[in-house]
Write a structure and sequence with these properties.
single chain, six-stranded antiparallel β-sheet, 177 residues, 2 domains, alpha+beta, 36% helix
């Protein structure tokens, strides 16, 4: 009888251990990145931090038929969450669109940018040297008091050491309004 109780106890301990193991593994995969994103986007009181993300790219001074300029901006402020896009090229009139987006859309966009470490890059000063015929493009992000910014020319996109920044630019280019 005593061995039967010990056997039951061992069985329960094994089941409990398996339960704890499964729970700990599940918590690793549950959504730590979402909670990390929310902790970056909200202050200690639970209010959304003011956020501004801007990507600007242009072709520079090229032949008019190849000229283009694009700007995409993500904003969070007291009025809500917004996405705006400005675009111009030779074939169409310049367009400017701004729309309010949902909290979920905003968090998803920011999650993708945070995953690429956009907020943890250095804050670059504008290039001092201006080269005739070269257009400097930029990406900047500010969430609360944290910010980063970088500049690039289109040829930089081909460099291996530019891979992380290119990933950020690709995220911004994929945004549809």
């Amino acid at each position: 009888m005593f061995s039967k109780e010990i056997s039951k106890l061992i069985h329960h301990i094994c089941r409990f251990s398996i339960f704890i193991f499964v729970l700990s593994v599940a918590s690793l995969y549950a959504s730590p990145k979402t909670s990390n994103v929310l902790s970056e986007l909200k202050n200690k009181q639970g209010y959304w931090k003011v956020t501004n993300v801007v990507w600007e790219e242009s072709s520079g001074p090229v032949s008019p038929e190849f000229h283009y300029a694009k700007q995409i901006q993500i904003e969070a402020n007291k009025q809500g969450f917004f996405l705006s896009k400005k675009e111009s090229n030779k074939n169409t009139e310049p367009t400017e669109t701004k729309k309010k987006i949902s909290q979920n859309t905003y968090v998803a966009l920011m999650k993708e940018l945070f995953h690429s470490n956009a907020l943890h890059l250095s804050y670059e000063e504008p290039p001092k040297q201006k080269v005739l015929g070269i257009s400097y493009n930029s990406f900047s992000i500010r969430v609360g008091s944290k910010q980063s910014r970088f500049y690039y020319v289109l040829k930089d996109l081909e460099k291996k050491e530019f891979k992380k920044k290119k990933e950020i630019i690709q995220i911004m280019k994929r945004i549809k309004l």
